[in-house]
Amino acid sequence: MAAPAEQIARLRLIRSETFGPVTYFQLLARFGTAQAALDAIPDLAARGGGRAPRLASVAEAEREIEQVARLGATHLFVGQGLYPQLLAELDAPPPALIVKGNLGLLDRRAVAIVGARNASAAACRFARQLAHNLGGAGFAIVSGLARGVDSAAHDGALDSGTIAVIAGGIDIVYPPENEARQQAIAARGLLVAEQPPGVEPRARHFPYRNRIIAGLALGTVVVEAAPRSGSLITARCATEYGREVMAVPGSPLDPRAQGCNLLIREGATLVQNAEDVIEAVSPLFTRAVRQGAHEYVASPSPADIDEAARRAIFDLLGPTPVQLDEIIRQSASPPATVHTVLLELELAGRLERHAGGRVSLA
């Protein structure tokens, strides 16, 4: 069965060069449909003073959809009913996910359990038991299918329900020794990937994976973590999303406990068992799911923007990243106008977006 035209158009936007979630949602808000956005990109890039980026073709999008279907997986797009609500409320959620397994787990309350790849035997045993107990209490357990704590958490919740977020394509096994575990989760739990099939995980993919782990869960438990580990990135994402951050204390003599002890010192909830975790996340059970900031207000037509306003906005930019709010304040232009001008520059390859809502000239 052929995929709907709008699904193909959305996938083309997502897979096109240089586009991130912010650009994707701004284009949809401005033009209403992905196809209308695709048609408008050459003109927007020209107004930004550059050439339009290469857009993914219809054939490329169709091939990906067919390949995903052959793998027994499916795409979930933001705005679809099956897309997880907690993830959709982020400021810039992944525009599309590729999922394989029990989609019903996305409707269940979830807790993330993450930790060190070189975890101690005690930490792995604790993570496995914690996941088992939380699963018995009705929670889905989310983790990243890495060695150590992640693998132990998945094992503990395999019978009750676990969600594995992977950094590469849905068909790529990483690390290699987790092949049987990944197959078991696909059959009995749920695999989630943001990258298209066939993509080998790279270092830059793991922070994106970590934001999905934190975004799917009411709270994140860190079992063991070094001070500069990916687990602390997940915890930081959870804090930014207004979710609960919990940590298991450890010996100050063990470097693998330093990250957890640091989190606790900075205000994370100290947990020692499943009851502590349930108590920590229970205030979030009844909170309303907010609409994410990706529900952008439609921007003005580029033709309606005064050239003097466009120049004033451009002159405020430089190689040093600056907060978007500062550009709006100093330009004295409506936020929608600033967003449109920045979108033109980005599509022209003249603007880079950075973490924390900052932008700079490329």
Keywords:
3 domains; three-stranded antiparallel β-sheet; Arc Repressor Mutant, subunit A; globular; 362 residues; 13% strand; Rossmann fold
Question: How would you describe the overall organization of this protein?
Answer:
This protein has 362 residues and is an alpha/beta fold. It has three domains: 5-82, no CATH class; 100-284, Rossmann fold; 302-361, Arc Repressor Mutant, subunit A, CATH 1.10.10.10. 43% of the residues lie in helices and 13% in strands. The protein is built from 15 helices and twelve strands. The strands form two sheets. It has a nine-stranded mixed beta sheet, sandwiched between helices. The chain has a three-stranded antiparallel beta sheet with strand order 10-12-11. Strand 7, helix 10 and strand 8 (244-247) form a beta-alpha-beta unit. It is globular. The two termini are 42 Å apart. The mean pLDDT is 91.
How big a fraction of the residues is strand? 5-15%
Number of strands: 12
- The CATH class of the largest domain is identified as Alpha Beta
* Number of separate structural domains: 3
Task: Please state the structural category.
Answer: alpha/beta
* CATH architecture identity of the largest domain: 3-Layer(aba) Sandwich
Find the CATH topology of the largest domain. Rossmann fold
Task: Compose a concise summary of this entry.
The chain is α/β, with parallel strands linked by helices and 362 residues long.
SSE blueprint:
Blueprint: H1 5-15, H2 21-31, H3 34-47, H4 58-70, E1 74-77, H5 85-88, E2 96-101, E3 110-114, H6 121-136, E4 140-143, H7 149-157, E5 162-166, H8 179-188, E6 190-193, H9 205-216, E7 219-222, H10 230-240, E8 244-247, H11 258-265, E9 269-270, H12 274-281, H13 307-315, E10 322-323, H14 324-331, H15 335-347, E11 351-354, E12 358-361
Parallel strand pairs: 3-4, 3-7, 4-5, 5-6, 7-8, 8-9
Antiparallel strand pairs: 1-2, 2-6, 10-12, 11-12
